[in-house]
Amino acid sequence: MVRAPCCEKMGLKKGPWTPEEDQILVFFIRKYGHGNWRALPKQAGLLRCGKSCRLRWINYLRPDIKRGNFTREEEEAIIKLHEMLGNRWSAIAARLPGRTDNEIKNVWHTHLKKRLKDQTSTSSPASSASNVASQSAEPENMNSPQPSSSSSDVSSVTEVTAALTDDNHQDMITIKGENMELSETFPEIDDSFWCEALSADNSSIQLEFPEATNDQAQPQFPITENDSGELGFTFCPNMDDGMEFWYDLFIRAGYGDTRELPEF
DNA sequence: AAACAGGCCAACCGCAAAAGC
DNA sequence: AGCTTTTGCGGTTGGCCTGTT
């Protein structure tokens, strides 16, 4: 069987995700779910393969993800579970709410394996095993408060995501200072919608995400002209390689419109 | 201050299983 | 029933960061 072309050959992006891509993915999944990962990036206007989107969502963007350092109880539980289940990371993750298999796997390889080796080399196997067993936590203990150092260890990416996934503000955007609910706004989009979002000098489109905590989430999209003289703007103006799919994203997300989009 | 080494972790790859047709 | 597509999983990699020399 011929191997499927890799993402790069298909013109898809690889490597670290940008905050803008995260926003789009979170927005799309919150609105439509993820019934088909393969189709999702195209529908959402992301230049990523479905596999990459799935991984990003599961390992990083899911709202129930618990960020920050592992507690001692969690670490002991991982050791105990690994003793029982072996390298079945997804099975271990299923018993640790908010933790992903990838995260657990990383913790195991970077911390726990080494620690366990040190323990066994400095104490008898029997005492080590009983120590682990006695300290292992039950699943209900997993939700105990995290140390403050853990809770403060949150990236700006997560902050933006949190703002967009907060139940109090879901599907809300602000256009020219007026709060709107996406589900109400988009079905009625017409040319006047975009006119309202235009800046005073018609040089940019302004959209706002309420409660956002950094500039990246309060984007202003410069209007540019393509080779054919058609006007448009990029959804991610700060990205190095540019991703001109804003129009596609919003139309697909709220409209289902299949009109021809200008090429840039 | 620069070079190097090691730790860490997000993301990728390939394979297998499951689901769909 | 068999083939194709999609999803899930575990292993691995690459690049950034930090500590050490």
Structure in words:
The chain has 264 residues and is mainly α. Among the domains are: 72-100 and 116-151, no CATH class; 159-255, no CATH class. The chain is 45% helix and 8% strand. It contains twelve helices and five strands. The protein has helices at residues 19-32, 40-44, 50-61, 72-85, 89-94, 101-122, 125-135, 148-151, 156-165, 182-185, 191-197, 246-255, and strands spanning 172-175, 178-181, 204-206, 220-225, 231-233. The strands form two sheets. The chain has a three-stranded antiparallel sheet, with no helix packed on it. A hairpin with a 2-residue loop joins β1 and β2. The longest helix is centred in the middle third of the chain and has 22 residues, at 101-122. The two termini are 36 Å apart. Mean pLDDT is 57; it is low at 1-6, 124-195, 208-219 and 225-264. It binds a DNA duplex (21 and 21 nucleotides) through α3 and α6. Residues 9-61, 62-112 form the Myb-like domain. InterPro entries: Homeodomain-like_sf, Myb_dom, Myb_TF_plants, SANT/Myb. This is Transcription factor MYB30-like. Residues 121-137, 144-157 have a biased composition (Low complexity). Residues 9-61, 62-116 form the HTH myb-type domain.
